[in-house]
UniProtKB/TrEMBL annotation:
The gene is nudC. Residues 1-33 are annotated as: Disordered. It catalyses: a 5'-end NAD(+)-phospho-ribonucleoside in mRNA + H2O = a 5'-end phospho-adenosine-phospho-ribonucleoside in mRNA + beta-nicotinamide D-ribonucleotide + 2 H(+). Pfam families: NUDIX, NUDIX-like. It comes from Frondihabitans cladoniiphilus. NCBIfam families: PRK00241.1 (NF001299). PANTHER family: NAD-CAPPED RNA HYDROLASE NUDT12 (PTHR42904:SF6), NUDIX HYDROLASE, NUDC SUBFAMILY (PTHR42904). This is NAD(+) diphosphatase.
């Protein structure tokens, strides 16, 4: 998971709940996952209309979200936030960000279009029921629509968005990434054609349909008998950047098996009691992060040792140690489920 610098100033709690209601039940935990928020009806039946985009573009109420290279267009005055490149959130001037939703006439007519659904937000500028469409732009098209600084990386401004805009941007970027990586049929090598509102790709010769794919990955807050939290540093990061251990689920494997295997492979630690917390889409490019807690297997604990390839350092942290670490430990950004799991264990928010 990507990370930002963090300074711990919150007094750690010895429990799982804090004054703001953060708890271990799924609904409470999921409420703290920025990319899991949504207020959009995906309206899947409309995708089947043969002339869906002719209808939508002719409707003056329709609004278009431009997407370019995994970035969404931000509204004027809400420029992309400053960041260290590891998931920092918050706009440069402290203002909340919002997406730029354009009229159909403001978007190039030959852009790839994807029907996202209808707005359900009662606090958005657009009324409930507004049709929403993503337009995936080329470099030339994007430069004609807006300056480069208006295109925002979702992982860096997710927490500044409303629930509707966070869900809308996540959906749009995820499906746009799928289109970018599935231009040709894996069976025949022939070009694929977008169909059903952008949610199906079709081989134009034999009619074979290809549907969007999501890669499930587990991410785990591992604790020992003393309730210390295990954090690791990736070989690609600077040495003081730490996060939870995570990995992709393999074919034919349950989520619980993936938790046990990945933790052992990366740390040498054997875990048990894998407990599901919640999930968050992570469209960078196409993952679904499945959050778990697990405990060291007392009967067969293994031996703490980083794999040396992906993970180069491992450390156990008490709450007091994490609170006093200061800049010596850089934690994941607020857009990540890793941050939510760490704070769930910690018992409160960790101030940046």
């Amino acid at each position: 998971m990507n990370m930002i610098g963090a300074r711990m100033s919150t007094t750690p709690s010895t429990g799982r709940n804090d004054a703001q209601g953060r708890g271990s039940d799924e609904s409470s935990f999921s409420a703290h996952l920025p990319l899991s928020r949504h207020e959009v009806d995906r309206d899947y039946l409309t995708r089947d209309r043969p002339d869906v985009f002719v209808e939508l573009l002719a409707d003056p109420a329709t609004r278009i979200l431009p997407v370019w290279k995994g970035r969404a267009l931000l509204a004027p005055g809400a420029s992309a936030p400053e960041t260290d490149g590891f998931g920092a959130t918050g706009s440069a001037d402290g203002a909340k960000s919002s997406l730029a939703l354009l009229a159909p006439s403001e978007v190039p007519g030959d852009a790839l279009l994807i029907y996202l659904g209808r707005s359900l937000a009662d606090d958005a500028p657009e009324p409930i029921g507004t049709p929403l469409v993503a337009a995936v732009l080329s470099d030339e098209q994007a430069s004609a629509v807006a300056d480069a600084e208006q295109w925002g990386n979702l992982r860096m401004f997710a927490t500044d968005l409303s629930a509707r805009d966070a869900g809308l941007a996540t959906e749009a970027i995820a499906i746009a990434n799928w289109h970018a990586s599935h231009r040709f049929s894996p069976r025949t090598g022939r070009p694929l054609v977008s169909s059903k509102g952008g949610w199906v790709l079709v081989d134009s010769e034999d009619g074979h349909e290809i549907f969007p794919r999501t890669d499930p990955a587990i991410i785990v807050g591992v604790t020992d008998a003393d309730d210390r939290l295990l954090l690791g540093s990736n070989a690609l990061w600077e040495k003081n950047r730490f996060s939870l251990l995570a990995g992709f689920v393999e074919p034919g494997e349950s989520l619980e098996q993936a938790v046990e295997r990945e933790i052992f492979e990366e740390s040498g630690v054997r875990v048990t009691n894998a407990t599901y917390l919640g999930s968050q889409p992570w469209p960078f490019p196409a993952s679904l992060m499945l959050g778990f807690r697990a405990t060291v297997d007392v009967a067969n604990p293994g031996s703490l040792e980083p794999d040396g390839a992906e993970i180069i350092d491992l450390r156990w942290f008490t709450r007091d140690e994490l609170a006093s670490a200061g800049d010596s430990v850089i934690l994941p950004g607020r857009s990540s489920i890793a941050r939510a799991i760490i704070e769930d264990w910690y018992g409160g928010e960790i101030d940046d």
